[in-house]
Design brief:
Elements (H helix, E strand, L loop, with lengths): L1 H32 L6 H26 L5 E3 L9 H8 L14 E3 L12 E2 L18 H18 L7 H7 L13 H11 L2 E2 L20 E3 L4 E3 L5 H10 L3 E5 L4 H4 L1 E6 L11 E11 L2 E7 L11 E5 L13 E3 L2
The protein binds 2-acetamido-2-deoxy-beta-D-glucopyranose (NAG).
The site of 2-acetamido-2-deoxy-beta-D-glucopyranose has 5 residues, from loops.
Length: 332
C-alpha cells in the first residue's frame, strides 16, 4: 500500500514536473526565436504574461478548429505583452492630432454603374513594397502614408520606390504629426505636398525614434499634390476606391488581444469599434474566403505577424473595426 502511494505520488509529480518542463522548454524556444532577453525580475513577469497569452491562444484556436471563429491566433513576438502594454506601445493613429490648418483635401466621387471585380490584390500588379517593421514607435501613420503613395507613384511612374517613414516622423510636425507619439496619414500627405517630395527609404532609413529633420531634395522618391478622403463609413465607396485607385490608407481599431496575436483567417472581432481608431494600415485589396468577405490589409509589424505581415479583416460587416471610417489616398 505504501509502495503504491509512493509510486502514485511519483507518477503525479512526474506528470506535473514533466508539464512544467515542457512549458519551460517552449518558453526558452520562444525567447530564442524572437531574440528576447530579460533582466532577472522581468523574466518572471514576462513568463506569466506569456503563459496567460498561451492559454488565450490555445483556447481560441481550439474553438476556431471547431468552427466557432473564422481566424486563428499565434504566439508571435508580442506574446509577452499584456493587452494594455501592447496598446500603449502601438497607438500611433490619433484623431485628436487633427489640425485646423488649411489642407489640400478632396472628396472621392463614385462613378455610377462601375462593375467592380470580386477580388483585388495590388501586390500582383507590383504596387506594393515588402512588409516593413515600425518597431517600438507609434509611427504606423507614416507607414500607412508611404504605402499608399508608393502605390500611386508606381501607377503614374511605373517605378516602385520604397519611401522614407523616418522623413515623415522627423519632418511633418508643422502639419500636426508627433513622430513616434502619433500622427495622421492625411497630414503626412499634406507635408509631402508642401515639402514638394519625400525621400526614398534607402536615402533616409528608418530609425524608430524621433530625430532631427534630415530631408534632402536630391533623393526624393515621390511627391503628391494633396489627398482624397473617401466617404466615411461607406464600405462600398472604399471598395470602389481600392478597385479603381490602388492601395488605400485606412485607420482601424487594433486595440484587441485578437489583433495583437492574429495569425490567419478572416479576422472577426465583435468588440471592435467603428470610431475609436488607433492604428494606420494599408488596404491593398479585398475578396471572399470561405464565404466571408474580407479586406486584404498590409500591416507594419514585420513579416512574423499575421500572414507574412498581412491580415484579412472582415468586410461588409457594418464597417467592422472602422476600416472605412477614415480612408484616404494621396493624389499624384
Ligand atoms: C492623442 O493626442 C492627444 C493630443 O496630443 C493626447 O492628449 C492624447 O493622449 C493622445 N491619445 C493617445 C491615445 O495617445
Amino acid at each position: 500500500m505504501k509502495a503504491l502511494t509512493v509510486a502514485l505520488v511519483a507518477v503525479l509529480f512526474g506528470c506535473v514536473f514533466g508539464l512544467d518542463q515542457t512549458l519551460t522548454k517552449h518558453w526558452k524556444l520562444w525567447k530564442e526565436l524572437h531574440s528576447k532577453k530579460y533582466f532577472d525580475a522581468e523574466e518572471h513577469v514576462r513568463r506569466s504574461v506569456w503563459e496567460s497569452n498561451l492559454n488565450l491562444v490555445q483556447t481560441h484556436n481550439l474553438q476556431a478548429d471547431l468552427g466557432q471563429h473564422t481566424h486563428w491566433l499565434k504566439m508571435n513576438k508580442f506574446a509577452d505583452l499584456t493587452s494594455e502594454e501592447f496598446v500603449k506601445q502601438m497607438n500611433g493613429f490619433n484623431m485628436s492630432l487633427r489640425t485646423n490648418q488649411q489642407m489640400d483635401r478632396h472628396e472621392f466621387t463614385r462613378s455610377s454603374n462601375v462593375k467592380l471585380p470580386d477580388t483585388v490584390d495590388w501586390r500582383d500588379q507590383g504596387y506594393v513594397t515588402d512588409v516593413k517593421d515600425q518597431g517600438q514607435c507609434g509611427s504606423c501613420w507614416a507607414f500607412s502614408a508611404t504605402g499608399s503613395l508608393e502605390g500611386q507613384h508606381f501607377k503614374q511612374a511605373k517605378m516602385l520606390n520604397s519611401l522614407s517613414e523616418q522623413n515623415l516622423v522627423d519632418c511633418s510636425t508643422a502639419q500636426g504629426n508627433q513622430g513616434c507619439n502619433g500622427g495622421l496619414m492625411d497630414q503626412a500627405f499634406q507635408y509631402i505636398k508642401e515639402n514638394m517630395g519625400i525621400d526614398t527609404e534607402d536615402s533616409y532609413p528608418y530609425e524608430a525614434v524621433d530625430n532631427q529633420c534630415r530631408f534632402k531634395k536630391d533623393t526624393i522618391g515621390a511627391t503628391d499634390t494633396g489627398f482624397t478622403d473617401i466617404k466615411t463609413k461607406d464600405e462600398e465607396a472604399l471598395q470602389e476606391a481600392v478597385a479603381t485607385v490602388g492601395p488605400i490608407s485606412v485607420a482601424i481599431d487594433a486595440s484587441h488581444p485578437s489583433f495583437q496575436l492574429y495569425s490567419h483567417g478572416v479576422y472577426n472581432e465583435i468588440f471592435c469599434s467603428q470610431i475609436r481608431l488607433d492604428h494606420g494600415v494599408l488596404a491593398v485589396g479585398y475578396g471572399t474566403d470561405s464565404g466571408k468577405d474580407y479586406w486584404l490589409v498590409k500591416n507594419s509589424w514585420g513579416k512574423g505577424w499575421g500572414m507574412d505581415g498581412y491580415i484579412k479583416m472582415s468586410r461588409n460587416k457594418r464597417n467592422q473595426c472602422g476600416i472605412a471610417t477614415a480612408a484616404s489616398y494621396p493624389m499624384v
